Amino acid sequence: MNRFVLILILTLSILLAACMHSSQPSIIHQTDWGGTPAAVDSVQSIEYITIHHSGVVFESGKDPLTYLQNLQNWSRAEKQWVDIPYHYLIDRDGKVYEGRDARLSGDTNTSYDVQGHLIICVLGNYEEQTLNENQFNALIQLTAAIAKQYGVAPDRIRSHHDWVPEETVCPGRDIQRIFEDGSFVRVVSALLDQPSAN
Prior knowledge:
alpha/beta; Lysozyme-like; 6-stranded mixed sheet; globular
């Protein structure tokens, strides 16, 4: 077994132990970050979880509340979308924010059909930035909790790039690598196999 595989296994074991203590990260609701929820006029059935990045460098210390308020305003005014295109967003500190109501389909600037997808966005540009430990842990915990809540099988957890590789590099090479090597889905699968702590 080479050194890289040994380090990966050790890292995954540590992350699994840490994640087992908290089945879902705390979520900051839309009204708490200053957003205004969209009216729910239809209901989608969640079949997939798709990971995006925002595609804009997001430095630690940048105010996520202002960013989210501006994103919501832009989404509605410029794109004519009902809300932020993502259902959940994770900042550089690993805080999770509620975006669009999960009962509504998300939006995208690419051609994949977002009906049935719950979309998680990691704030930042992961062609240029590196996913940090806080974000990774929050992404793992949130994805596992959502997969469990909606009965999404691990093989239906993918990146934006996986759906339309000819159209986008989203979620950026640093996140895409954990989809290509399978480590992200393996950790989520392991969490889903853990008994619930009651």
